[in-house]
Specification:
14 helices, about 75% helix
Length: about 270
């Protein structure tokens, strides 16, 4: 009993420490400019300035940034779920020569930093004529090794007898995947989708080098340019940052039950 109480106290302290920057960001986004750096520091603003959000939105092309980020993120998420489901099923349920070796090679690529592949990928995009296009922002990230790994681990927990019974009823691999596995795989699909959404929504380096116009910038890149322009207007910076993290936070809180189930079923919990 004492051990559980101690663990909960430690976790509660950890929550406070991790939540402090976000809470400060949100509260600062509502403060007038003269209260942001006021000494002594004040947690709550004397007057909540909701106009900070309107002013920040109108000070840059945030409408375009949000549109680009949403479009790129949604297409990438569905692309990664689709490719991860196919590859994960093949590694989990199908038999072919060198299956384990190929899977371990796939896992090995996760140790390669993005910076190592940045120049070759950029040259490839240039040769394809995809610089400053949605194709260049989306297509290179249609496959995710981590997503494949999660799908494989989840599919391996499904009893083989289920496939044998479906095979007796005339189901092939494709029918079994989409008619039987798909309805029971919502947790892992949500997990892969959330991981994909977070990484794509927060992606900065690749969109930075792939875009050279305001109309193609995603939210992290646009937010960086906004920061350079309004570096001393902290209340607007905090308002813009709050708008940037809000969609991801909402999606996670809505889907967290399936996310936790998916992580637990893949053996990572």
């Amino acid at each position: 009993m004492k051990t559980k109480v101690f663990i909960h106290i430690v976790l509660f302290i950890g929550i406070i420490i991790m939540s402090f920057p976000f809470l400060w960001m949100i509260l600062t986004s509502f403060k007038p400019q003269d209260e942001v750096l006021q000494i002594p520091l004040k947690w709550l603003p004397t007057k909540f300035e909701f106009s900070n959000y309107i002013q920040a939105w109108e000070s840059a092309s945030f409408g375009r940034y949000f549109f680009n980020s949403i479009l790129v993120t949604v297409i990438t998420v569905f692309g990664q779920i689709f490719t991860s489901a196919l590859a994960g099923y093949a590694f989990a349920k199908m038999k072919f020569t060198g299956k384990n070796l190929i899977f371990y090679v796939f896992l090995g690529t996760m140790m390669i930093p993005l910076e190592v592949t940045l120049i070759p990928n950029y040259i490839l995009m240039k040769e394809l004529g995809w610089l400053n296009t949605y194709f260049g922002l989306i297509v290179p990230w249609f496959a995710s090794v981590f997503g494949i790994f999660l799908m494989r681990q989840f599919f391996k927990t499904v009893p083989q007898e289920l496939f044998e019974a479906a095979e007796m009823d005339g189901c092939g691999h494709w029918s079994y995947l989409w008619k039987i596995l798909f309805p029971i795989s919502t947790p892992v699909f949500v997990s892969v989708g959330i991981f994909s959404m977070i990484s794509t929504w927060n992606s900065f380096l690749w969109p930075l080098i792939m875009t050279n116009s305001t109309n193609m910038r995603t939210l992290p890149v646009g937010l960086t340019y906004f920061t350079l322009e309004f570096s001393t207007r902290y209340h607007l910076l905090m308002a813009a940052a709050t708008m940037a993290i809000l969609p991801v936070a909402l999606v996670y809180f809505i889907a967290q039950r399936h996310f936790i189930q998916g992580i637990a079923r893949t053996g990572l919990g």
